[in-house]
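Lab meeting, item 3. Inverse folding demo.
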């Protein structure tokens, strides 16, 4: 080490000794278990959309399957077992897979990261004319959490596309209404037109 290097090292070290050191948060580890290169691309794209929106996800694993049984006959499902958070993704139709991943990531952002507080949920239910956030007895499109996940997915796509009838299509579907709901949930505007992460 030359004298210059020693001097630089001291310059860097001194402030750290004299000031409290800010705790560095552990990096969030997100694992992807794909079966194909395309599935890996879709997962990376979906994660990049959340990052672009500034919506912080918790540690999780995304596992792809080539059958619907693994997801309880759904496109995808979020399973939480203690600290283990896993999205099982069974939708392999490229036209729907990205949207489905965003939907499950939105559930993760909501349920695991705790990003939608009680007041926001109440306001969202009122806005969408719904009665319950997560009543399993209600049809899919009458549960606040499902509409929320689908509206977040809608707003993170590159272009607005209609919300499918199977998930969250109840209530007003015009762009202004969906944008209002998206902003209520996330605090930001939809990412439409953002081409940075086309992937
Ligand atoms: Zn869902």
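The presenter then showed the designed sequence:
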């Amino acid at each position: 080490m030359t004298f210059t290097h020693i001097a630089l090292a001291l310059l860097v070290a001194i402030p750290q000794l004299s000031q409290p050191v800010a705790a560095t948060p552990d990096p969030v580890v997100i694992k992807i278990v794909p079966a194909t290169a395309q599935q890996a691309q879709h997962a990376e794209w979906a994660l990049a959309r959340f990052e672009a929106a500034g919506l912080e996800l918790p540690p999780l694993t995304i596992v792809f399957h080539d059958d619907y049984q693994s997801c309880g006959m759904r496109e995808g499902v979020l399973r939480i077992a203690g600290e283990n958070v896993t999205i099982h993704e069974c939708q392999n139709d490229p036209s729907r897979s990205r949207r489905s991943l965003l939907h499950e990531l939105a559930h993760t952002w909501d349920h695991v990261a705790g990003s939608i507080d009680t007041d926001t949920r109440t306001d969202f239910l009122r806005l969408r004319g719904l009665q319950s956030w997560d009543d399993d007895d209600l049809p899919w499109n009458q549960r606040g959490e499902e509409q929320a996940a689908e509206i977040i997915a809608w707003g993170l796509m590159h272009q607005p596309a209609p919300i499918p009838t199977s998930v969250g299509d109840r209530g007003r579907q015009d762009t202004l209404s969906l944008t209002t709901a998206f902003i209520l949930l996330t605090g930001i505007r939809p990412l439409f037109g953002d081409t940075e992460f086309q992937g």
